[in-house]
Amino acid sequence: MKVYEAVFIFDPELSEDTLDQLKDKIVNTINANGSLKEIKVWGRKKLAYPIKKKQDGIYYLFEFFGETSLPKELKRLTKITEPILRSMIIAREGRKKPIEAEESETPEQAAVKEIEKPEEVFYSTEEEATEEQVEKTESEVS
Q: How many CB atoms lie within 10 A of CB 32?
């Protein structure tokens, strides 16, 4: 499973009920093909340029886990749902293969733990690295 982020811009003239229905529709699509990590409401913001003759939009950020087919389904949903002005879905870097979860973890917890791992640091000069790191690198090369 990959980790994705999706930003949706909704029509600012929507009622709260309609906005909740659309949000639930997106959440149900995500849960049917993956799992939702978090929803962040960015709120009403001015658009950089008019979209469908609207100057403002209501922004939502969805973070989720899913297979590669999930973004295609969300894009399809975006195209057929008129109150969604724009959307952007990106895959977070670093996940190419499935994450192995420990027995006490869910796949989502394992993915979060994997994302939060510090990346390997490469030093431009040996002076920046400690002797232990240089020895470790030299032993890996041999």
A: 10
